[in-house]
Amino acid sequence: MSTLSSNQTPLRRAGWAVTVYLIAGFAWIMFSDALAEVWFPDPKTLSMVQTWKGFFFVLTTGLVLFSVLFRQLTRDRALLALQHGQRLALRKRERQLQVLMDNLPGMAYRCRYDPQWTMLFVSRGCARLTGYEPEELIENRVTSYASLMDDEDGERIFCEVKAALANDKSFSLEYGLTRKDGSRIWVWERGRGVEEEDGTVVLEGIVLDISDRKELESELEELAIRDPLTGLFNRREMSRVLEEELERARRYQRPMALLWIDFDHFKDVNDTYGHAAGDSVLRSISRLLLGSVRSVDSIGRFGGEEFVIVLPEMGLDEARDTAERLRRKVAGAPQPLGDGKTVPLTISVGVAVYPEHAQNGAALCAAADKAMYLAKGWGRNCVAMAHLHDQVHNES
Ligand SMILES: Nc1nc2c(ncn2[C@@H]2O[C@H](COP(=O)(O)OP(=O)(O)OP(=O)(O)O)[C@@H](O)[C@H]2O)c(=O)[nH]1
């Protein structure tokens, strides 16, 4: 319909121009002939006047035709120059966009909003990011983008994109991706939904490799929860683990034990062999303890030469046996000083158990610490259980 009406407009305009020209022309001929016959009755003069009248008509219409054509051609030329300039600017923008996309530390994409994330376009960075050439991912020719995503992320991502589309907002996602060579990377994606002319929705955005940042983050997280010397949990993390395990024990009505370990006469090791040798002993006993407990148990360094072990689902008897086993193991293994020599070392262990000795973390620690001092008092290299009456004292 619109093509038809735009075709009719120039036709109508040309028709009007010709009609006006014909009416004016016929009127001029008739009117001027009649006037000439009245004003110049002499046939010779009349013939000359008509000749000049003809010249005048041709000259006038020629001038009109010239001015119309001149105006139209000038306009056409300006239009062509404008189009040429626009084409050049468009090409320049395309080139800039291409350079930008090719140098993205990731890839730009355009994909269908479907469970496969079917790619319609991916920039060249796709090969660097995923290991797949753009042609391999486009239209899922070799594999779909969804199959590269971690399975557990799929559902979450779909929900987040759905919510963003519903609110007409852009979405930001972080998820793991498996590359063609099997290596895993972390990516950050930002995109938004775009409605096509036919009403279907496609997604457009960028995907960047953030593996380095993720690695740094997890290193920082580890640093925040680990004791730098021994690599065991630090006091803060250990307190958190203790509260978490206590909560679990409370919920499932299960016992839980806490061992409070202190090295005997450790000051002598430092004083005799030096601080570096003391550090070596601390590291060695940490490894020994770590290798002597279950995977569900947690060990932390509470400070100096004090260590705490949380033993989930462990009652009084088993906790006593575990503490005794650890005491014997340390006593039976001379500790390396770092210079090839070793030194014998013993530990004193206090044992407190939930729910018998205490109901909360602080009270459980206090009961185990108190029991450890009891073991020191017995002459060291001993295991002491917290007293049951401590519970009354702790909770009061
Ligand atoms: N090498 C080293 N020594 C430490 C570190 N932290 C604490 N210590 C030392 O551990 C020693 C603890 O000594 P004390 O608390 O007096 O106890 P002890 O000598 O072990 O004697 P008892 O606990 O009574 O058996 C001190 O000499 C501290 O300097 C550490 O990170 N590295």
From TrEMBL:
Residues 171-222 form the PAC domain. It holds the Pfam family PAS_3. Residues 254-388 form the GGDEF domain. It comes from the Bacteria. InterPro entries: Diguanylate_Cyclase (IPR050469), GGDEF_dom (IPR000160), Nucleotide_cyclase (IPR029787), PAC (IPR001610), PAS (IPR000014), PAS-assoc_C (IPR000700), PAS-like_dom_sf (IPR035965), PAS_fold_3 (IPR013655). Residues 93-168 form the PAS domain. It catalyses: 2 GTP = 3',3'-c-di-GMP + 2 diphosphate. Gene3D superfamilies: 3.30.70.270, PAS domain. The chain crosses the membrane at residues 14-31, 51-70. Keywords: Membrane, Transmembrane, Transmembrane helix. Signal peptide: none annotated. Its EC number is 2.7.7.65. This is diguanylate cyclase.
